[in-house]
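Appendix B, example 12.
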Amino acid sequence: MNLTALDHVGLTVGDLTAMTSWYSSSLGMEVEFEFALDHVEFSGVMLRSPAGFRVELLHRPGNGAGLQAANPVEAALTRGFGHLALDVPVVDDAYDALIASGASDRMAPRPSPEPGVRMAYVADPEGNLIELLDRTAAGGRAANEAVGGRAANDVSG
């Protein structure tokens, strides 16, 4: 098998219109196309980021909330999809912007267990986890310092 790229991530949502608006305004994504399968009451929106990655928001009436974890360590207790991870140039700025746009805090910015990487977690308005990663810090700043009294490898929340 010859894989060339990850095409997209699919995320089932409770309110397709509201979540399309949130992902568009908060993450700068644009609607690539919309679709509906009326015979099974299934609809979706494919969003594309300026960087080219895609997120497909899916909806069926009556769907139920899935994983609603307080942090990534709790999310790891449930098999399956746990979070969407995004590479950003400055984690703190992206975290602050998403919190201001209605995301909720799940893990404040801090060094990642991966050396030289900074990370944070938020949840979108429906509780889906989004990880923010800054891999550019490895060459420019000491990412293994203690932040907020936590060691660099403490991701417990």
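DSSP finds four helices and eight strands in the chain. Helices lie at 16-27, 72-75, 91-100, 137-140.
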